[in-house]
Amino acid sequence: MFLLYFRNIQQNPIYTELPDFNITNISSDSFEYIKEDTKNFVSKICNYLRSIRNLLVKQEVF
Fold first, then answer.
1. Max CA separation in the chain (angstroms)
2. Domains of the chain: which residue ranges?
3. Surface-to-core class of residue 50, CB atoms within 10 Å of its CB (0-12 exposed, 13-18 middle, 19+ buried)
4. Which of 10, 18, 22, 60 has fewest C-beta within 10 Å?
């Protein structure tokens, strides 16, 4: 879904001349690795997803 979104942006003539929008690969060096145990990680992800869902419901997107 997100890749399709970014590809559509890249095909837009306004953005194609901007190098920041022409990224096709992301190297692993671009990420910062943070040590986190699995239980806390999953809990945080679930909380973020729940928050996003609540925002979308408030905006009547769902």
1. 44
2. 34-62
3. exposed
4. 60
